Amino acid sequence: MFPEDMQNEIKKYASELIQWMAALLSTGREKQLFSFSFAPEDKAIFILSSVKGALQTARVSSRNSFFQVLDTIKNSLGLNVGGREIEKFSELSINSQ
Asked: Are 94 and 19 in contact (CB under 8 A)?
């Protein structure tokens, strides 16, 4: 087990990461760059957990499922996988706090 002060910092980091992702998703939805039906905080947790799990799975398996997970996330945001979705992100500006 990690020391309590380290646990608190890890929790703080995780919370800040979720808040940042939720703000990014919210702004993207407001600008009609993303389309999803869940609360931005819930979608942020889903995306961050999916990416983390995909990275861990890719490290221990011969399947390259990481990029499949990324494509699934893009699809869940209403992005055209393999299309010009990257161009949309120039319209998205989130300041880190």
From this structure: no
